[in-house]
Amino acid sequence: MTGLVSAERGIGEIVLVDALPEFVVVVFAAVTHLADPWFLFGLLAVGYWFASDRFAAAPRRAGATAIAAVTCAYAATALGKAWFAVARPPGAVGPADVPTWLPGLLSAWYEAQVLSDGFGFPSGHATGGAAAYLALALAYDRAWTARKRLFAAAAVAVAVAASRVVLEVHYLVDVLAGLAVGVGVVLAALWLAGDSRVRRDDAAGRGASPALDPTVPFLLAAVVSLGALTVAVADGHTGEVVEAGIGIATGVGGAIGWRFVDGDEPAVPVRIAIPALAVTGGLWVGAYALAGTLGVTLAATTAAVVAVVALPALPERIDRLSASRS
C-alpha cells in the first residue's frame, strides 16, 4: 500500500556506490545474474532432475520442495511490490552511464543490467537469491557440511543483494527486506512440506525428512500470487499483473506436476532431459514473449512447470509403453 514504504528511502548508499571504480560495477553487473529468475529456476531444475542420493535421502522430493519454496518467494515479492508500489532509485530509469572501454556487445549487456523498470520494494533478486541458495543448502543436506552449505548460500545471496545496490536499481532497504523475506519464506515452505528440522521433530534425525511433499508450498505460492494479482488489478499496476499471473501458473503447475511423481524416482536420463529442456525452455520464452496476452502466458507457464516437475516420472512411463508394444 502506497505510503507504508517511503519512495525516498535511501540512506546515502547511492552516493557511496557512485564513487566505486567502473570495473567494480561491471563485475557486480555479472554477479547479479546469479539470481536472475531464468538462472535460478534452471539451477533448481538441474538439481531436481539429476541429483542422486549422495545429495539428499530423497533427491526428487528435496528438489521439488526447493522449487516450491522459491516459487513462494517470488509470489511474496510480487505481492510486496504491488502492495507497497514504490519506485526504484532514479538511476534505474536512465540514461545509463556505460563505461567507454566496454566493447559494443558488452555495452548493450551492461545497459540492460543497470536499467530496470517496475517497483523497487522488496528486491526480487535479493529475495529470489536468498530463497534459492538457502533452499538448496537445506534440501540437499548430504552435500558438504551444513556449515559450508549455509556459508556458501549466504555468501552468494549477500553478493547478489549488494550487486543490486551497486547497480543502483535498488536501495539498501529493498535488498535487506528481500533477504529477510527469502529466508522467512523458505523456512515456512519447508515447514509446510513436512521438514522435520523446521518442525523441530527429532524422529527423523538431524537431516531433512525423506517424506517431503511440496504440494502445499506450491499451492501457497498460487494463493499468494492470486493476492498479488488482486492488488495489482485493483491499483492499476499492469506490469505486476503479468508477474502475479506467472506466479499463479507456476504454483498450480508445480502442484499438478507433482501428482505424476512418486518422489523416489531415479535421476532423469540425459536422453530425456535434453529434449525436455528444449521444450520447457521454449514454453518459458513464449510465456514472456507473449506477456501482452495474459491467457496465453498463463497456459504456457503452467505447461512448462507441469513438464519440469513431472519429468522424473516420464522414463518409467516410456519404458512401460515400450514393453506393452513389444
Query: What is the string of helix and strand elements?
Result: HHHHHHHHHHHHH
Q: How many domains is the backbone divided into?
A: 1
Uncertain spans: none
Major β-sheet, in short?
A: none
Helix % is 55-70%
Count of beta strands: 0
Gyration radius, to the nearest Å?
Answer: 20 Å
The total of helices stands at: 13
- Overall mean pLDDT stands at 91
Beta-strand content:
under 5%
CA-based shape: globular
Q: How does the helix and strand content classify structurally?
A: mainly alpha
Distance between the termini: 62 Å
Summarize the structure.
InterPro entries: PAP2/HPO, PAP2/HPO_sf. The chain has about 325 residues and is an all-alpha fold.
